[in-house]
Automatic annotation (TrEMBL):
Transmembrane segments: none annotated. Residues 1-21 form the signal peptide. It comes from Orchesella dallaii. This is NodB homology domain-containing protein. It comes from the Eukaryota. The lineage of its organism: Eukaryota, Metazoa, Ecdysozoa, Arthropoda, Hexapoda. Keywords: Signal. InterPro entries: CE4 (IPR052740), Glyco_hydro/deAcase_b/a-brl (IPR011330), NODB_dom (IPR002509). Residues 60-181 form the NodB homology domain.
């Protein structure tokens, strides 16, 4: 009896917190039980959180999926790094590898975002403002989340000519999610997945991406985490790497000690890759910023780039390793397909799309046309907006 009352009390508490955070009720997610697994939660629409391989494939027949992700603006300063390191690499199906870009608005070059998009990379969002204060993200209300993310997708569609339907994912700045408020906005806004939640408890064997139809068993490293039910909306966990000091690091840029040489970089990536490859092959993510590797060698940047590229060379020797964007990986999880059949797996094929950004404009905005004290430059497809686009005016209409 006492136990039941405790359960009831905690359920009420969870509901109370959710109401507080949202200003309206969320439906608390129910636990994923054996009965749910058997009857109510099956692929392609639903997957409970866990370390089991989708489709109950064996380890030997499961491809090791690898995510290469890069946060923040795409710009003249980093596009040559992406071209050098990512372009012209092939997966075992002889199609190009694809990465995932989490792009925020300020200083982004939309013509270059279009280039990445048409070559098959995933263009995901990372907020319009990238506000530097984490409490801002933890406490943001629904209408502001819409302005930061749903409006940003419209901005990307207009300025980079990327169809709304092809912008599917999100990562919160500094991995500071807004819990249920953020999840509700992403789901209602038609996004398919988010990738902001680090896990240390489920790193070896790793937790696979899951939908939020039922209660997640993932650890909550950065509060708040969602407790509501978001049917069909995917969480792509950020499985921590371990630095050489044995401490977890969600972004490889934060692993310590920071690798200084190509060999140290290669060894760090290989060691963490093997934690996935030798267990349940949960997707291995190298989550980083170009700034970790892009530049002169006085801070180890060029050496890290060499070690990173050498690691990608090593992955290319493996017939069961596929470097794919997160949206493509989710298609695999929805329809688990053995390695031997991947030659014909459509989501891993990467046809180049037509160039839909043939008119590129370099736009200038004096300080009075921006919300900032200083001027801004912006490169877009087609036409320059009248004023600098920002929260509340994502297309920069005057
Ligand atoms: Zn960022």
């Amino acid at each position: 009896m006492f136990g039941k009352r405790l359960v009831l009390a905690s359920a009420l508490f969870v509901g109370y917190v959710a109401v507080l955070a949202l200003g309206q009720a969320v439906t608390p997610a129910l636990p994923c039980t054996e009965a749910v697994l058997a009857e109510n939660c099956t692929l392609p629409d639903c997957r409970c959180s866990g370390i089991d391989i989708p489709g109950n494939l064996t380890v030997a027949t499961t491809p090791q999926l690898v995510f290469l992700t890069f946060d923040d603006a795409v710009a003249i300063q980093n596009i040559d790094f992406y071209r050098e390191v990512l372009y012209n690499r092939k997966n075992p199906n002889n199609h190009n590898i694809t990465a995932t870009f989490f792009i925020n608005h300020e200083y982004n070059n939309y013509a270059l975002a279009h280039e990445l998009y048409r070559l098959g990379h995933d263009i995901a969002l990372h907020s319009m403002s990238h506000n530097p204060l984490t409490p801002y993200w933890a406490n943001l209300n629904q209408s502001m989340w819409r302005a930061e993310v749903v409006d940003q997708r419209q901005q990307m569609a207009t300025l980079a000519r990327i169809p709304v339907a092809d912008v599917k994912g999100f990562r919160a700045p500094f991995l500071q999610t807004g819990g249920d408020v953020m999840y509700s906005v992403l789901q209602e806004g038609g996004f398919q997945w988010e990738c902001s939640r680090p896990t240390l408890n489920f790193r070896k064997p790793g937790i696979w991406p899951y939908t939020n139809d039922y209660r997640s068993t993932q650890d909550c490293q950065i509060q708040p985490c969602p407790v509501g039910e978001y049917k069909g909306f995917w969480t792509v966990p950020m499985i921590d790497m371990l630095g050489d000091n044995n401490e977890g690091c969600a972004m490889v840029d934060t692993c310590t000690p920071v690798p200084e040489t190509a060999d140290e970089t290669y060894d760090l990536l290989l060691k963490n890759f093997n934690d996935h490859y030798t267990t349940n092959k949960a997707p291995f993510g190298i989550f980083t910023h170009a700034a970790w590797m892009n530049g002169a060698d006085d801070e180890g940047l060029a050496s890290r780039k060499i070690g990173y590229a050498r690691f990608l060379d090593f992955l290319a020797t493996k017939e069961d390793v596929y470097i794919v964007s997160i949206s493509r990986a989710i298609e695999w999880i929805k329809t688990p397909t053995p390695v031997a059949e991947l030659a014909d797996f459509v989501p891993f094929q990467v046809p180049v799309k037509p160039d839909d950004c043939t008119v590129v404009r370099n736009c200038y905005y004096a300080a009075e046309q921006t919300p900032f004290p200083t001027e801004r430059y912006m490169t877009v497809c087609d036409a320059c907006p009248a004023v600098y686009p920002w929260l509340g005016n994502p297309l920069g209409v005057s």
